[in-house]
Amino acid sequence: MWRFLDTRFEELLGSVLLAVMVTIAFVNVIVRYWTSFSFAWTEELTINFFVWVVLLGTARSFRDGGHLGMTLLYESFPRPARMVCYWIGIMTCVAFFGALCWTGILEVIDEYELEAISESLGIPVWWYTIATPAFSLLVIVRMLQRSVTDLSTGNY
Fold it and tell me: By CB distance 3.0 to 4.6 Å, which of 31, 56, 82, 128 could disulfide with 10?
């Protein structure tokens, strides 16, 4: 389990998904250009994979400490006040992604119980939406992992 937390899982999966998205979108454009035919399923996959890539990118950003932040005011605070702001930010983000995970779980349960099927490919919709709670949980794990590293190095 701990080896998984040290890997670059987000980058690997995100790269594969992005390559799939680009390939199917490119093939669809070429087919539409040369024929009057269009693949309807490409939009379904591209949109859903885009959500996955965004959540994976968010997890990667928190893992590496590369998320967007405004530091002008933060850096003017004394060190104890910075620590308080840091923890308020972490707890706010954990609460947000926790709520996203919870509502994602509820959505997956509803889609599973209602047997919702996607329009283009005819597969269960929960196959797509399971990524929202799963990757939200991954974001929380990466956020907490980064906060432990920041506290141990005093980098807050």
Answer: 56
Closest CA to 84 of 69, 73, 74: 74
Which residue type sits at 14? G
pTM reported for the whole predicted model? 0.84
For the chain, the structural domain boundaries read 2-153
Which residues of the chain have a pLDDT value below 50?
none
For 55, counting Cβ atoms within 10 Å of its Cβ (0-12 exposed, 13-18 middle, 19+ buried), the class is buried
Angle at 65 between CA 10 and CA 8, to 5 degrees: 25
Angle made by CA atoms 101, 136, 68, in degrees to the nearest 5? 130
